[in-house]
Amino acid sequence: MQKRRKLGRGVAIVGAGMSKFGMFKDKDSKDLFAEAFKECLESVSKGIDPKDIEALWLGNFSNDFFMHQGHWGPIISDLIGLAPKPATRTEGACAASTLAFRDGIFAIASGFYDIVLVGGVEEMSKRPTEEVTEGLALATVPYEGRVGFTFPGVFGAISTAYFEKYGATRDHLMNVTIKSHNNGRLNPKAQFNVSVRDMMNSRIARAKKKGEPLPAWKDEKEALWDPKFNPPVAWPMHLFDCCPISDGASCMILVPEDMAKNFTDDPIYVKGIGQGSGRGLHAAPSLTSFEANKNAAAEAYGMSGLTPKDIQFAEVHDCFSMAELVHMEDLGFVKEGTAFKAVAEGYTKLDGPMPINTSGGLKCKGHPVGATGVAQLYEVWEQLKGEAGGRQIPNKDLHIGAAQNLGGTGGTCTFTILERR
Amino acid sequence: MALESKFSEVAENKFYSLAYHRFLSEKKLMGSKCKKCGHICVPPQPICPKCQGSELELVEMKGKGKLVAYTVIAVAPPLMVEEGFDREHHYCSGVVELEEGARVTARILGVDLARPEQIKIGTPVTVEYVEAMHGGENKTLLAFRASS
User: What is the ipTM of this complex?
Assistant: First the structure.
């Protein structure tokens, strides 16, 4: 029986910001973080003096590789005028910034600091796809890369095991993709704020313009089955199963619960946090589940006293369409082996009983890896506050939302539950 | 039981990461077996991940197993591009469950790369070793061939 986790003192989020995500030729990591930071300060409804921020935790996976520049803590603290106060970089592959968020929480819970900034940044688009794939593969376990596995390859292999075990097919994965795009279309900060249908229409328009034969797709799935529209990456993962290469930044201001109302009448409270670690594909106890997820979920549910039924909506780490299904099962939102059916039935749509990835997910919002964790929490913050605009969940009584973040091939997983009181 | 090898770590039953790859270069697939709980790991681990016992021995695998997960990769990383793979020339990587119970990740040979959907989970496979130039160095890589 795991010990029940608790914080020394409660923590609340009083401000949050996120840059637009995308591939930017003329913006770098600093520009993007400045964009997120300015929005974050402005979001503190009663105002905050940035001089009162006492420390920074910054998630970054590998700008070292992507940009040949490491040591991003002090670069960002200098950028925002925080220096000489402490800046710490956290690394947990694609979960890097949730680790920053957790460390900020621990710093406040311990009583050492009262006002901290947490966030993340990544700039990936300045390298060709093959090299980005190689950079990301640094987060697989050594034995996988050597035998040719890439990230899409690992999730491809997980898909084949899942298909075999539960009878799912590529058709089911397409439901995840179509849903993500329908949500991403409503997110102005998303890298792909277009539906699959929009993308089909622009392809048809292009063919018309060039006088080429027009594709005869009768619906989204027919287009997704067409390798010219949706080429293979790593069977059964195709282009539309994979999140894009992205640049972006995100951040949040954390304070102790008892100070939160000094900054806003409507803080969002940290209800539960959890983390876990996992092994490579070859050593994992199951090929269709992440043990790190289950550990993270047990910690967060235990701390919050909540069960999966209490979670009203969630952002989960859909780096690949298949991953979304595994996470839904690992976190207990649905029974093992049933996520593909639930998605097919519309369970996770924006107006469904359990909306998943209302932001468009990593697939459409984009996945600047080090910024992703806090960007997921930013979506939960916006939804809980009723500020998600066109993609606001129609449920008028939203008060519990969650975010699950995955690093590597399940080597690091986190689960965070937020509450609006 | 002493194993034949030109490398002293075999005789001395030494565990370190590099040893696994040295064994591969001798066409030996090595694992570790926990003396306390019997758990087998490939590649070898110095501490048993199951019971955390630290009394382990190196054991050679028979090299027979079945395919439990796979992918056919079209967007290859630079390492594989060096071997001649690209968007037109795909390759298969997979997870093999050995007869001894442990699982390993490996290249998978003898499957129809043009029809990845036809590759069957559960296909019996036998160990093979691929010699390849990676980063200008000759490496022996673990592979398994599907029996038809």
Answer: 0.93
